[in-house]
Specification:
alpha/beta; Alkaline Phosphatase, subunit A; Gyrase A, domain 2; seven-stranded mixed sheet; four-stranded antiparallel sheet; 19 strands
Length: about 400
């Protein structure tokens, strides 16, 4: 493909890259993490991005969870178009609660696959394997997870011998090393394979544990800054954003501030009259106990949605209750994959199902989580000066590829 041609993907135009483009999704990255790391003097490259590049703020997708936002970033469109509206959902066709990791749930192609089909060299490195199949759907190129880097093959991942290439042992899924492996692999790939487009997606293990400005958080951002410096030195246009922010979800004593919504509804409406689904649910629950600030509720045939909504609004800590239609419109969600009601809790509060279904014994530090409107604001940063952006355009994290290719 000529570098003067333009690729149209999901209704948006993307010109061919002039230099390698690396988009980084830093899982759980509230802007304050970057601000504090810069202030502490441990992130000189990010300080340079602020001074010599472009730093913006953007809104992520609500629910502010990993899967819907990563898929919005790589498709350039909201969940109403690509179909991934959580990490987990209730499949009405099968009447089962299932993980939303299978690419069969994806309703549109990705920017990555489109460029690969047009002849670009494309690479994807994700921390957790749950995202790999979705991010790499129908994509020719390199695609692997740090979690299962030791199992990568040329046939299935486009590359093998990753531990030797990266020079790190296989990291634990519950560690900062999992994200470091993503960055280290990205630098090696850019140096050795020279992909035209690369997508790096980390894990929010550190952000769940540590608040901005704490030693644990600053050490993580210092590590990240080190690898971003190398990507910049190798000539990449870098676009950095996040899938969601992160907030403390505790009371004044530091205890988890949880609304067990299924227990409340069972008591007020009746047992087995409603079904509460938590789309934050994934296989990695140690750091958040499957507790987030967003839930959907399915109602029995005899239940009145307005009456149940009023019952939920009366619960202290609830910020918003919307009908299916209202939520689909406001948050740009696929209406057939959310409940009859969508519930969002306040900034310091999370929603659970029944207390008996959540094991919080592994929470060694005060609970930090995400999912609501309070975690919607995320950074959008580039190591280049961007051309003018229309003042009336609402910036989204899923504009990052568009801006990196059109404006950087």
């Amino acid at each position: 493909m000529s570098n003067t041609q333009i690729l149209s993907v999901n209704g948006r135009n993307y010109p061919w890259m002039k230099q390698p483009v690396v988009v980084v999704c830093v899982d759980g990255c509230e802007q304050e993490y970057i601000n504090q790391a810069i202030q502490a003097g441990v992130a000189p490259f990010m300080k340079k991005m602020v001074e010599q590049g472009t730093i913006l703020g953007a809104d992520c997708v609500v629910p502010s969870f990993t899967n819907p936002n990563n898929l919005s970033i790589v498709t350039g469109v909201p969940p109403s178009v690509h179909g991934i509206c959580g990490n987990y959902f209730y499949d009405l066709d099968t009447k089962q609660e299932v993980m939303m990791n299978d690419a069969k749930y994806l309703r549109t192609g990705t920017i990555l696959a489109a460029f690969a089909d047009a002849g670009a060299k494309v690479a994807v490195v994700t921390a957790k394997d749950k995202l790999r199949g979705l991010l790499g759907h129908k994509m020719r190129g390199i695609c692997f997870s740090a979690e299962k880097a030791d199992q990568a093959t040329v046939e299935h991942n486009g590359i093998d011998n990753l531990l030797e290439l990266v020079g790190m042992p296989l990291p634990s899924v519950y560690s900062a090393d999992l994200s470091e492996f993503v960055f280290a692999a990205g630098v090696k790939l850019l140096a050795n394979q020279r992909p035209d487009i690369m997508y790096l997606s980390t894990t929010d293990y550190i952000q769940h544990k540590y608040a901005p400005g704490t030693p644990g958080a600053n050490a993580f951002y210092s590590m990240m800054d080190h690898y971003l410096t190398q990507l910049d030195t190798l000539g990449a246009v870098i676009g950095l954003t996040a899938d969601h922010g992160m907030n403390a979800k505790t009371d004044s004593a530091g205890q988890p501030n949880v609304i067990y919504l299924q227990d409340v509804l069972d008591a007020r409406v009746g047992v087995e009259k409603t079904r509460v689904i938590l789309p934050i649910t994934d296989p990695y629950v140690v750091h958040q106990g499957a507790l987030g600030s967003y839930a959907t509720v399915y109602l029995g045939a005899e239940q009145n949605a307005a009456d149940v909504a009023e019952q939920i609004r009366a619960i202290p800590g609830i910020e918003l209750v919307l009908t299916r239609e209202q939520a689909a419109q406001r948050f740009e969600l696929p209406s057939d994959r959310i409940g009859d009601l969508v519930v969002v809790s306040e900034r310091l509060t999370v929603i659970g199902t029944a207390a008996s279904r959540h094991d919080l014994s592994e929470l060694k530090l005060p609970l930090r989580s995400h999912g609501g409107i309070s975690e919607q604001r995320v950074p959008l940063m580039f190591n280049r000066k961007l051309a003018a952006i229309p003042a009336d355009h609402r910036l989204r994290n899923f504009d990052v590829f568009f801006l990196a290719l059109n404006n950087a």
